[in-house]
Amino acid sequence: MQGKDLRIVFMGTPDFAVASLQALVEGGYNIVGVITAPDKPAGRGKKLHESAVKQYAVEQGLNVLQPEKLKNPDFLNELRALEADLQVVVAFRMLPEVVWDMPRLGTFNLHGSLLPQYRGAAPLNWAVINGETKTGVTTFLLAHEIDTGKILFRKEIDIWENDTVGTIHDALMGIGAKLVVETVDALASGDYKAIPQEELVAEGEEIKHAPKIFKEDCKIDWSADADAVRNLIRGLSPYPAAWSTLKHKETGKATATKIFMAMRVEDNKNTPPGTLESDGKNFLKVACSNGWLQITDLQIAGKKRMKIQDFLRGFQQIGDYTFQ
Known about the structure:
Blueprint: E1 7-12, H1 15-26, E2 30-35, E3 40-42, E4 47-49, H2 52-59, E5 64-65, H3 73-81, E6 86-90, H4 97-100, E7 107-111, H5 123-129, E8 134-141, E9 151-158, H6 165-189, H7 226-235, E10 242-248, E11 254-265, E12 276-278, E13 284-287, E14 292-300, E15 306-307, H8 308-314, E16 321-323
Parallel strand pairs: 1-2, 1-6, 2-5, 6-7
Antiparallel strand pairs: 3-4, 7-8, 8-9, 10-11, 10-16, 11-14, 12-13, 13-14, 14-15
Helix pairs in contact: 1-2, 1-6, 5-7
């Protein structure tokens, strides 16, 4: 049997998942249903916002289901009625067994890491935050514990010095889409080997995790190592973005500031962390515990993201401030 002979249900929500769905649709695969998140109020007007996957699926005339609860009997009956041979999951929520075990070929997930490393909700972010030099995508069969199922295929890429989570996201989106198609074909033909994740863990190797990121995880500690601060900034750029508080030394006025990119610069001065230096026109440096970072892109509360030159033109006497 070939992949295009299968009845496939696709599950996903954000932009990252759209590329995989699009690859299947444009490849002529039989998508009998698309499961995505319910519409949610967003923005000042609280208008209902449709997921990126729903928007694409509707454009393609695909059958869309948006269950609030995945164990809802009505939803389960609708899902069974699709008579799927295979379910494909990309950036969706955790599935109950009654859902992932439904198709005869099971359900596989595309995960944004080289499993078994970086299981969890934010694998792309944590790989960059931790200073990894390689990452990738993995397809694996769903099992009881999240992100622990047998591995089908992996594709590795390099993380370069100036990569951010945004550039890694965009690169892996396309690579992952191709891997999804390859995995569908392999499962249809039976030409694959499912490898238990334990077999890919070297003796003494530490398993790193990728938990959900909260606002406090994004706060910059300028007393940390400069490379660690830079990696945090890269690993959260452009979203959700690392942040700090720009505080006036005398008045105490504080302004929340998102920082999107910073570069290491040579400076031997021993200066308290958070100290700022600038020529008022072209550069802004911040002291860390063991060096300095030069900020190139930032956004202060209530303003748009801007290059540092534009920021300095409108923000006078930067020497009266520190980052805290």
